[in-house]
Amino acid sequence: MNRIIPTGQVSHKQGFYLGWLKSLGVDTRRLTEEQCEKAAEPPDSDGCEKLRKVTALVVHHSATGEGSAEAFRVLHRLVNRWRDVGYHHVIGNGTHTQDGLLEAGRPEHLRGAHARGANDFALGICLVGNFNMTHPTKRQMATLSGLLTRLMKAHGLAEKDILLHRQVPGSSTECPGKNLTLDRVLHSIGEQSDSI
Ligand SMILES: [Zn+2]
Question: Is 8 a member of any domain?
Protein backbone atom coordinates (compact mmCIF):
# COMPACT_ATOMS: atom_id res chain seq x y z
CA MET A 1 0.00 0.00 0.00
CA ASN A 2 1.34 3.42 -0.90
CA ARG A 3 1.04 5.96 1.82
CA ILE A 4 1.21 9.66 1.33
CA ILE A 5 3.91 10.82 3.70
CA PRO A 6 3.21 14.29 5.10
CA THR A 7 6.05 16.80 4.92
CA GLY A 8 8.55 16.14 7.64
CA GLN A 9 7.36 12.61 8.27
CA VAL A 10 10.04 9.97 8.11
CA SER A 11 8.82 7.32 5.68
CA HIS A 12 7.95 4.00 7.23
CA LYS A 13 7.39 0.48 6.12
CA GLN A 14 4.47 -1.91 6.25
CA GLY A 15 3.67 -3.08 9.75
CA PHE A 16 5.04 0.15 11.19
CA TYR A 17 2.23 0.98 13.62
CA LEU A 18 1.74 -2.60 14.81
CA GLY A 19 5.47 -2.84 15.46
CA TRP A 20 5.43 0.42 17.40
CA LEU A 21 2.39 -0.61 19.47
CA LYS A 22 4.05 -3.94 20.25
CA SER A 23 7.18 -2.12 21.41
CA LEU A 24 4.96 -0.37 23.99
CA GLY A 25 3.69 -3.71 25.25
CA VAL A 26 0.26 -3.43 23.60
CA ASP A 27 -1.41 -6.72 22.75
CA THR A 28 -1.87 -6.29 19.00
CA ARG A 29 -3.38 -9.69 18.19
CA ARG A 30 -6.80 -8.22 17.44
CA LEU A 31 -5.46 -5.30 15.39
CA THR A 32 -4.46 -5.04 11.75
CA GLU A 33 -2.07 -2.58 10.16
CA GLU A 34 -4.94 -1.40 7.98
CA GLN A 35 -6.99 -0.46 11.06
CA CYS A 36 -3.98 1.42 12.39
CA GLU A 37 -3.47 3.32 9.14
CA LYS A 38 -7.11 4.33 9.19
CA ALA A 39 -6.96 5.37 12.85
CA ALA A 40 -3.89 7.53 12.10
CA GLU A 41 -6.02 9.91 10.05
CA PRO A 42 -7.73 12.78 11.88
CA PRO A 43 -11.36 11.92 12.67
CA ASP A 44 -14.38 14.05 11.91
CA SER A 45 -14.70 16.56 14.74
CA ASP A 46 -18.46 17.10 14.43
CA GLY A 47 -20.17 17.08 17.80
CA CYS A 48 -16.91 17.14 19.78
CA GLU A 49 -16.76 18.97 23.04
CA LYS A 50 -15.34 22.47 22.64
CA LEU A 51 -12.58 24.01 24.71
CA ARG A 52 -14.26 27.24 25.76
CA LYS A 53 -11.44 29.27 27.20
CA VAL A 54 -7.76 28.42 27.37
CA THR A 55 -6.20 29.51 30.66
CA ALA A 56 -3.23 27.12 30.84
CA LEU A 57 -0.69 25.33 28.66
CA VAL A 58 0.41 21.89 29.84
CA VAL A 59 3.70 20.32 28.74
CA HIS A 60 4.06 16.53 28.45
CA HIS A 61 6.56 13.96 27.28
CA SER A 62 5.30 10.89 25.45
CA ALA A 63 7.21 8.51 27.77
CA THR A 64 8.02 6.55 24.60
CA GLY A 65 11.30 6.58 22.72
CA GLU A 66 9.59 7.11 19.38
CA GLY A 67 6.37 8.61 18.14
CA SER A 68 4.41 11.25 16.24
CA ALA A 69 0.95 12.79 16.28
CA GLU A 70 -0.23 9.98 14.02
CA ALA A 71 1.24 7.23 16.16
CA PHE A 72 -0.30 8.69 19.32
CA ARG A 73 -3.60 9.03 17.46
CA VAL A 74 -3.46 5.30 16.67
CA LEU A 75 -2.66 4.47 20.29
CA HIS A 76 -5.28 6.77 21.78
CA ARG A 77 -8.03 5.74 19.36
CA LEU A 78 -7.47 2.00 19.12
CA VAL A 79 -6.11 1.23 22.58
CA ASN A 80 -7.52 3.96 24.85
CA ARG A 81 -10.71 4.15 22.76
CA TRP A 82 -10.63 7.93 22.66
CA ARG A 83 -12.11 9.93 19.83
CA ASP A 84 -8.78 11.40 18.74
CA VAL A 85 -5.20 11.88 19.88
CA GLY A 86 -5.29 13.41 23.38
CA TYR A 87 -2.71 16.19 22.77
CA HIS A 88 -3.22 19.38 20.77
CA HIS A 89 0.40 19.57 19.62
CA VAL A 90 3.20 17.05 19.21
CA ILE A 91 6.89 17.90 18.78
CA GLY A 92 8.96 15.22 17.05
CA ASN A 93 12.37 13.92 18.14
CA GLY A 94 13.71 12.63 14.83
CA THR A 95 12.20 9.14 15.09
CA HIS A 96 8.81 9.04 13.33
CA THR A 97 9.09 12.68 12.27
CA GLN A 98 11.92 15.16 11.98
CA ASP A 99 13.62 16.44 15.09
CA GLY A 100 11.76 19.52 16.32
CA LEU A 101 8.90 19.18 13.85
CA LEU A 102 5.64 20.58 15.19
CA GLU A 103 2.55 18.55 14.33
CA ALA A 104 -1.08 19.37 14.98
CA GLY A 105 -2.88 16.84 17.15
CA ARG A 106 -6.44 17.41 18.31
CA PRO A 107 -7.73 20.73 16.93
CA GLU A 108 -7.00 23.59 19.34
CA HIS A 109 -10.65 24.57 19.70
CA LEU A 110 -11.62 21.13 21.03
CA ARG A 111 -11.27 19.80 24.56
CA GLY A 112 -8.23 17.54 24.79
CA ALA A 113 -7.53 14.39 26.80
CA HIS A 114 -4.08 14.82 28.31
CA ALA A 115 -4.20 15.96 31.94
CA ARG A 116 -7.01 14.94 34.25
CA GLY A 117 -8.26 18.03 36.05
CA ALA A 118 -7.00 20.44 33.38
CA ASN A 119 -8.65 19.28 30.15
CA ASP A 120 -11.46 21.81 30.54
CA PHE A 121 -9.11 24.78 30.29
CA ALA A 122 -5.69 23.68 29.01
CA LEU A 123 -4.01 22.91 25.72
CA GLY A 124 -1.76 19.85 25.80
CA ILE A 125 1.68 19.87 24.17
CA CYS A 126 3.64 16.63 23.95
CA LEU A 127 7.35 16.27 23.22
CA VAL A 128 8.23 12.84 21.87
CA GLY A 129 10.68 11.06 24.19
CA ASN A 130 11.04 9.68 27.68
CA PHE A 131 12.74 12.43 29.63
CA ASN A 132 13.31 10.26 32.64
CA MET A 133 15.91 8.52 30.47
CA THR A 134 16.95 11.05 27.82
CA HIS A 135 16.84 14.81 27.35
CA PRO A 136 14.68 16.81 24.95
CA THR A 137 16.68 17.83 21.90
CA LYS A 138 17.72 21.43 21.22
CA ARG A 139 15.35 21.55 18.29
CA GLN A 140 12.46 20.26 20.37
CA MET A 141 13.10 22.98 22.96
CA ALA A 142 13.33 25.66 20.26
CA THR A 143 10.02 24.52 18.77
CA LEU A 144 8.44 24.33 22.21
CA SER A 145 9.47 27.87 23.12
CA GLY A 146 8.16 29.23 19.80
CA LEU A 147 4.88 27.41 20.26
CA LEU A 148 4.43 28.53 23.88
CA THR A 149 5.19 32.12 22.89
CA ARG A 150 2.58 31.97 20.14
CA LEU A 151 -0.04 30.35 22.36
CA MET A 152 0.54 32.78 25.25
CA LYS A 153 0.01 35.66 22.85
CA ALA A 154 -3.07 34.11 21.23
CA HIS A 155 -4.79 33.38 24.54
CA GLY A 156 -3.55 36.32 26.61
CA LEU A 157 -1.50 34.10 28.94
CA ALA A 158 1.70 34.63 30.90
CA GLU A 159 4.58 32.35 31.89
CA LYS A 160 2.77 31.52 35.15
CA ASP A 161 0.10 29.81 33.04
CA ILE A 162 2.59 27.23 31.72
CA LEU A 163 2.51 23.99 33.69
CA LEU A 164 4.28 20.69 33.50
CA HIS A 165 1.82 17.80 33.62
CA ARG A 166 3.10 16.78 37.07
CA GLN A 167 2.23 20.27 38.39
CA VAL A 168 -1.46 19.96 37.53
CA PRO A 169 -3.24 19.78 40.89
CA GLY A 170 -4.31 16.24 41.68
CA SER A 171 -2.01 14.61 39.13
CA SER A 172 0.17 11.67 40.10
CA THR A 173 2.63 11.44 37.27
CA GLU A 174 6.31 12.12 36.64
CA CYS A 175 5.42 13.54 33.22
CA PRO A 176 7.33 15.13 31.46
CA GLY A 177 10.20 13.30 33.17
CA LYS A 178 12.94 14.46 35.52
CA ASN A 179 15.04 15.94 32.71
CA LEU A 180 12.39 18.45 31.66
CA THR A 181 11.88 21.06 34.36
CA LEU A 182 9.80 24.22 34.31
CA ASP A 183 13.01 26.23 34.68
CA ARG A 184 14.32 24.70 31.51
CA VAL A 185 11.09 25.47 29.64
CA LEU A 186 10.99 29.08 30.85
CA HIS A 187 14.71 29.51 30.16
CA SER A 188 14.19 28.45 26.54
CA ILE A 189 11.46 31.06 26.14
CA GLY A 190 13.77 33.70 27.60
CA GLU A 191 16.54 32.72 25.21
CA GLN A 192 14.22 33.00 22.27
CA SER A 193 12.92 36.45 23.12
CA ASP A 194 16.50 37.65 23.79
CA SER A 195 17.46 36.70 20.27
CA ILE A 196 14.63 38.61 18.57
ZN1 LIG B 1 1.67 14.01 30.58
Answer: no
